[in-house]
Amino acid sequence: MDVSTMLVPATGTFFLVLGGYFLIMALIGFYSARETNSLKEFFVMGGKAGAIVSGIAYFATQYSMSTFMGVPAACYRQGYPGLTVSVPGLVFSMIIPALVVGRKLIKLGHEQGFMTMADYLGDRYESNLLRGLQAVLMVFFMVPMMGAQIIGAGIIFNTFTGYPEWIGVVATGLIVIVYCMSGGIRGAMLTDVIQGLLMVVTAVVTFFVALDMGGGLEAINAKLFELNPAYMAHPGATGAYPWPALVSMVVMWSFFNIGSPTLATKFFTMKNYKVMFKAVILGTLGMWVSATLIEWVGVLGIVSVPGLEGKQMDFIVPLILQKGVSPVFASLMIAGIMAAGMSTIDSLLVVSSGGISRDIYQNLMNRNASDAEILKLSRVVTCVFGVVAILFGIWRPSAIFDIILFSFGGLTIWATPVLLGLYWKRTTSAGAVTGILTGVLLYIPLSASPQILEKIGLGSLVEISSTLKGYTFGFNALIPTWVVAMIVTVLVSLVTKPVSEATLKRHFG
């Protein structure tokens, strides 16, 4: 089925509602710019963020275009098994990082003035090499992550206007560049508050619309069982989610967020541990309600909007809204989906710019550069990365969920040096560097699809990738990669020189 035959553009209404939404985001950016006059304000909001802003921004960052489009598409393909794979991990994606590393990172951030994950890693391991490596690899994986969010915006734009996707990609990218370049993390977090609330409303409304379109939950479940009993139980309609995949996904979305650079930055923005505790409760409730409902929509959509195939499944949520509610209300809810992508892009954009301007330029290339110079450079770098993400979104090398899965794993491999650095004094710089390099070099061929490898110029790895995947035993590539990285880090640390006593005293007190 051609999805274009199902689209009924409501161009005027959509432009009016979305234009108003974009204007509000831009105004918040300009307001934030007035309050952002130092490097610390640009990157960590001065370390003074409160519980409400932190909590909503925390879960809004976790909520990406994948939550509203990629994962519902996976649920549309698999049925209920898709829902069970994603929701448990997402619910614990805030609690586990907060309990395991949050308190320590908040304390160290305030005491040592850390503003980025590379700040922490470089200081803990006394290693400029690790600092630079973290910044470079972070940018490498963040660009496709940002691009995936913008791809979703392009799909939405096409769905509601009939115009080409690239116009929506460019418009969304530009507005995020404006408020991030102006207000840094303050602009990102304040817009996240509005975006997070809008996401929750969108998830609730879309769920009940899909339920009504399908004739109620009982009727939908009966129809699903009639169509294919595999929709109702693991491993899913195409057999994609046996128990190793289920375990992998739950562990990935919950535990491995420990290594996420964007979440580390959120910890550095918080006032103290009490703020973090309240923020996690608030954010977890928002995530649990909205993630469950919006991804359930993908299952309900099998009956409500049948016949979608391949990349067309990414359209399931916009199509349900377009078919089920008035153009004005649908456009407002679609702004909530756009918010899911924008709230992730803005955090990625600010953190990426920090990787280049602060972690590489100020700390490695020009230590005499003033904070004012770095602030100006950060705004330029933010703009450049935003443009690169827009170009990636236009390119659209794969489905949204596949791109995000690949990027997420690459970013969260850093759970290895973060976790060991916080809890094992014997971890050395050589161990951390060797472990990360081993992990990344193993992860890329293990995780990337042949199509992605071909498109990024690594076609020679396709055969190696196919061979290596036979040794993962059905688990997601991140799990065996992390195990190998941990083993390598520990073994190398045991035979190499530890960091100084002064550094251990600062970090372990």
Give the key terms.
single chain; 509 residues; mainly alpha; 23 helices; globular
Structure explained in plain terms:
It is built from 23 helices and no strands. The termini are far apart. It is an all-alpha fold and 509 residues long.
Give the structure's gist in a few sentences.
With 509 residues, this protein is mainly α.
Kindly estimate the percentage of residues that lie in beta strands according to DSSP.
under 5%
Largest sheet: none
Shape: globular
Taking all residues together, what is the mean pLDDT?
Answer: 82
N-to-C order of helices and strands: HHHHHHHHHHHHHHHHHHHHHHH
What percent of residues adopt helix (DSSP H or I)? over 70%
Main structural class:
mainly alpha
Amino- and carboxy-terminal Cα gap: 63 Å
Radius of gyration: 22 Å
Based on DSSP secondary structure assignment, what is the total number of beta strands? Answer: 0
Low-confidence stretches: none
| Count of discrete alpha- or pi-helical segments spanning 4 or more residues | 23
Please specify the SSE layout and strand pairing:
Blueprint: H1 11-35, H2 39-44, H3 51-62, H4 65-78, H5 80-91, H6 95-112, H7 117-124, H8 128-161, H9 165-213, H10 217-227, H11 243-254, H12 261-269, H13 273-304, H14 316-324, H15 327-365, H16 371-395, H17 400-412, H18 415-423, H19 429-447, H20 450-455, H21 462-469, H22 478-494, H23 501-508
Helix pairs in contact: 1-9, 1-15, 3-9, 3-12, 3-13, 3-15, 4-5, 4-13, 4-15, 4-17, 5-11, 5-13, 6-12, 6-13, 7-8, 8-9, 8-15, 8-16, 8-17, 9-13, 9-14, 9-15, 9-16, 10-13, 14-15, 15-16, 19-21, 19-22
